[in-house]
Design a protein that fits this description.
single chain, 331 residues, alpha/beta, Rossmann fold, 4-stranded parallel beta sheet, two-stranded parallel sheet, 12 helices, 45% helix
């Protein structure tokens, strides 16, 4: 299961997609009536035309990059299994019911479906809402088969190896810094997800202090992914940095902000930059347009000399093998 995408680059389709996405109470977690007014009355009317133009810059002849790449991943994973492999999106198409029904047609006596969320880290606005949505559809449709979910795999050895080896070819030449840019979330999401109610963001080093809260802490899990990958690459800490992108609204989000750091790094002597986006396993608007286009422009305009974005795992062989191994643990 992946995030999803508009059906086309038309403003109408982008508006429909944004309404579904932003009306999710786990994405914009404010009272329904206020969210409705904010999303449908202010954000979407202004954002849809701009987003439609942004999608046009990355759209392919086959369609949305995220959808196309997820389908290619499905095909690669299917080659590893005799059981059927289907895809579903949290927003847009194909929806969960279509995926469930397709599996049922192929396996009339279906007893169990294993859900593999294409989100390495636990976040209320990504992993959690995707999983809960699948279970909601499963219950509403009254399916007799059970639904089992693969846990976040941010620290899984095979995932880290796949991520590490995807980066390695891009740091063979001289570079000044490797920047890990993760999708940002509001700080309130981190606090809401704190299952202890008293740990997250209480102290500056909360992510380094052992706690049960880490099980659902996006911030902690991203730090772990970065640390494990940097260690596997054998890079000194001064050659790496972690930031958060895609901020929406004026609330305080996880810092430092990627967009801000891209304009500051050249003045700090970072002229040759390599960027990787581990929160995404499939290239999409946030990687291809926000980072590879806007981010690159900002960095070079600020005095940078070279900017390289590492592609997401997409249908990387090591990533496909990781999915296979993690899934087999549930079979």
């Amino acid at each position: 299961m992946n995030l999803g995408s508009p059906d086309s680059t038309s403003v109408k389709d982008v508006r429909k997609y944004l309404n579904e996405f932003l009306m999710d109470g786990k994405v914009i977690d404010i009272p329904f009536l206020i969210r409705t007014f904010l999303v449908k009355g202010i954000i979407v009317p202004f954002r849809a035309p701009k987003s439609a133009e942004a999608y046009k810059t990355v759209w392919t002849n086959e369609g949305s990059p995220l959808i196309v790449l997820t389908k290619k991943l499905q095909q690669s994973v299917q080659q590893q299994f005799e059981i059927p492999v289907e895809i579903a999106m949290r927003y847009g198409n194909p929806d969960p019911k279509s995926a469930f029904d397709s599996v049922l047609q192929q396996v009339p006596g279906l007893e169990e479906v294993i859900l593999f969320p294409l989100y390495p880290h636990y976040a209320m606005s990504s992993y959690e809402t995707a999983v809960e949505h699948m279970y909601t559809v499963h219950k509403k449709q009254g399916y007799s088969f059970t639904l089992t979910t693969v846990d976040p795999y941010y620290n899984d050895a095979d995932y880290i190896n796949a991520l590490t080896e995807s980066i390695r070819p891009y740091i063979q030449d001289d570079f000044d810094k490797l920047l890990f840019s993760y999708h940002g979330v509001p700080e309130r999401h981190i606090k809401k997800g704190d299952i202890t109610g008293s740990h997250c963001l209480v102290t500056a080093d909360c992510c380094n202090v052992s706690s049960e809260a880490h099980r659902q802490c996006y911030r902690h899990q991203t730090f772990v992914t970065t640390a494990l990958t940097v260690n596997a690459l054998g890079l000194p800490k001064e050659k790496t940095e972690q930031t958060f992108q895609s901020r929406l609204g004026r609330d305080q989000w996880l810092t430092p902000y990627t967009a801000k750091r891209l304009t500051e790094l050249p003045a700090e002597g970072v002229k040759k930059l390599v960027v990787v986006c581990p929160a995404f396993v499939s290239d999409c608007l946030e990687t291809l347009e926000e980072i590879a286009e806007q981010g690159k422009h900002s960095f070079l305009e600020a005095g940078g000399e070279s900017f390289t974005m590492v592609p997401c795992l997409n249908s990387n062989v090591l990533w496909v093998n990781t999915i296979k191994k993690l899934t087999e643990k549930h079979l």
